[in-house]
Amino acid sequence: MRHHVPIFRTKEKKVMAGAEVIGKEEIREVMEVLKTGVFARYAFDKERQGIWKVRDFERAFAKYCGTPYALGVTSGSSALKVALTALDVGPGDEVICPAFTFMATYEAVLEVGGIPVMADIDDTLNLDPDYIPNKITPRTKAVIPVHMCGAPARMDKILKVAKKHKLFVLEDTAQGLGASFKGKMLGSLGHMGTFSFDHYKTITTGEGGMVITNDLNLYHRAEWYHDHGHDHVSTVSRALDGRTILGFNYRMNEFQGAIGLAQLGKLNRVIAAQRKNQAAVMEMLSVVPKIKFRGMADPEGDSATFLAFNLPHAEQTKAFQNALKEEGLDTVCFKENFWHYLPNWEHFLAKSTAQTKNPFTDKRNGKVNYNRKAIPNAEDLLGRTLVMGISVKMPAARMKAMRKAITNAAKVL
Ligand SMILES: Cc1ncc(COP(=O)(O)O)c(C=O)c1O
User: What is the pLDDT of residues 341-365, one digit of tens each?
Assistant: First the structure.
């Protein structure tokens, strides 16, 4: 029997967090930009009438994360590429990445000419620090912990092993804005951190991203690279900027900056609402026999954007997922997901890059293993784990329907 009250229908599930709270603040910010007629972030000092939205967004974002430097870019994917470039990761370099991530993490490494090396996850569903040493070779240059589904990787251990082996740590925080590890905001713990503001993220600017760092030199390299090498020093004209390195164009525009500012102003409320709603859903799930919640590297630090739980066996998990679906409640089993689990990326496994000459054919690179047998934790855990999106707005009627759905579905177990 299907429910009459929609709970998490597929369409509804896609509206989360930032996109849920778009309102008059975003409209006001965008109107200010429209009125100036200057939509670009640099130059046109007179015409822009004192409006510098991207700059203001960067400053506010850096403050929120507790880092001195933040750089707005066009997406979370380009943020990764800009950061890897700033870290001087390039052809011949290997970068260790977890098998459970959005494929942009791997694509970014390939984009800079490096080779992504697959690593296993631990009970946090994030990069397993104990697995890293198995994958280190003389070519390893960096490691990318990805804070999946809003909760931190074991950053203390990851930082320790990285330091021991002299590796850069780039935190892919696309899904982890607002989450923290032992009091420090995610993205601020490693050498660099990157964020995404696409439509599904905790704050959204439609498309957009941010790179943060505590290191002025890395910030400069990112800043120069993301804008054709411009050093942004000239106060007279952009045409008179100095340049040292070549770059490309990953500039954020003023509309993105404006919306980002409005969204950032709502972030604390978003996180607080998610945490409250997540706690309520966890309590509902307590009727499910032998349920376990995802391991937490720091329970205080979860942004509560999602809720992940597991059952002892994959068959039970599937049965429970189907029963929840019957009741109108959609969940994701990431082992089956096409975009977030490496063994399901058939074009990646086929090394089907756009160009015939690519990092996989580069003789400098060693042989890498992307066989699912090499990641036993991910294979086991992700097959037994279900993930629910937690919304900001979960009215009482929806909560009530969820409780009923969960209670009914639990009867199959
Ligand atoms: C972990 C992770 N990294 C990177 C990205 C890429 O971000 P964008 O969509 O802004 O390019 C995403 C987006 O889903 C992501 O989830």
Answer: 999 999 999 999 999 999 999 887 7
CATH of the domain at 44: 3.40.640.10
The two three-digit tokens of residue 263, written as one number: 């969204």
If you measure from the C-alpha of residue 196 to the centroid of ligand 1, how many angstroms do you get, rounded to a whole number?
Answer: 6
Beta carbon of 75 within 6 Å of any ligand 1 atom: yes
* Residue 131 domain boundaries: 24-266
105 Cβ below 6 A of ligand 1: yes
Query: Which distant-in-sequence residues (6+ apart) come within 8 Å of 122 by Cβ?
Result: 128, 129, 130, 131, 154, 295, 377
- Which run of H or of E encompasses 299? none
Cα(111) to centroid(ligand 1), Å = 15
Q: Is 252 in the pocket of ligand 1 (CB under 6 A)?
A: no
Q: Report whether pLDDT(395) > 70.
A: yes
CB 304 within 8 A of CB 388: no
Does the pTM surpass 0.90? The reply is: yes
* Span from the CA of 302 to the centroid of ligand 1 (angstroms): 18
Q: Could you tell me if residue 112 is inside a domain?
A: yes
